[in-house]
Amino acid sequence: MRNHFVQGFSHLRIALLLILSLTLIPAAAQPRQSLVPGGIAVIELGQDDPRDFRFRGKPVLVTRVNGVPNALVGLPLSLKPGEHFIEARLSGGVHKKFFQVADKKYSTQHITVTDKRKVNPYASDMDRILAEKARKQKARNRYTSTPVDVDFLLPLSGIRTGSFGRRRVFNGQQRRPHSGMDIAAASGTPIVSPSAGKVIELGDFFFSGNLVYIDHGQGLISMFAHLSAIDVKLGEKIEKGQVVGKVGATGRVTGPHLHWSLGLNGTWIDPALFLSD
I need a labelling partner for 144 at 20 to 30 A (CA). Which of 119, 122, 153, 266 fits? Predict the structure, then answer.
């Protein structure tokens, strides 16, 4: 009897130690919520069916936080402050979850570009520019149901020289807000993928120079621009931390750096929200 008691106590102790060890394992980093234009809404879904929720007609990314499904919703820079919602058509009808978006004022950056053609393209450049724009839009709006690792790596160590959302003025002419994060580094410095994914677009583009689009799944898309070299192929499956290219100064630039845009449900959002620092 005593042996059975000791053996049972030993098994219980092992089980308790196992449970304790699991609780000490740090959870994967989750994106930070920022309820402003260009930010992310993190919405708990509870027992609702997470596969059907959409924001402005587009499916949203669903991940789990402490075992609970959460929607990650990309908020466009053009989004007006106020109440917004995601919705799903479930068996009981249309179900909505509301959230509030605050206003945010972004700064303005004045940039001098020596290659004036990159600011005011020739008429002969327009066919190329419009064709590349269509390819970019297709890549940014891609959606697959692939599971996503949202615990992102920083693609490149360097000096962050450009702020997401900053209003840009090139050679005195106003252009669209900055749609990504700029990281300055020496030309040729390797750039790694922040998460696993698949290469869905690449090439030499008029404004962006050498670029690569990576689909991380569920509408989460990375775009790396101004590369000096592309080290992946179209359709290639990419591992987290894999080198995808090297820093360069191609396209419309003032010096070597990486431009990293991060898309979520078809809109560019601040990549810094997916980083721990």
Answer: 153
CB 160 within 8 A of CB 195: no
Q: What residue type is 101 in one-letter code? A: V
Residues 136 and 243 in one domain: yes
The answer to whether 71 and 60 are in contact (CB under 8 A) is yes
Across the chain, how many H-helices and E-strands are there?
Answer: 2, 20
Percent of the chain with pLDDT over 70: 81
| Domain stop point among 86, 101, 116 | 101
CATH of the domain at 203: 2.70.70.10
pLDDT in tens, 103-157: 998 867 767 777 777 778 889 989 999 999 999 999 999 999 988 999 999 999 9
Identify the helix (H) or strand (E) that includes residue 18. helix 2-23
75, 83 contact by CB (below 8 A): no
Residue 21 and residue 16: Cα distance in Å, rounded? 9
pLDDT band at 66 (very low <50, low <70, confident <90, very high): confident
Domain boundary residue among 57, 80, 101? 101
- List the CATH number of the domain containing 56: 2.60.40.1590
Give per-residue pLDDT as tens, 244-257. 999 999 988 888 99
Q: Which two tokens stand for residue 192?
A: 């790694």
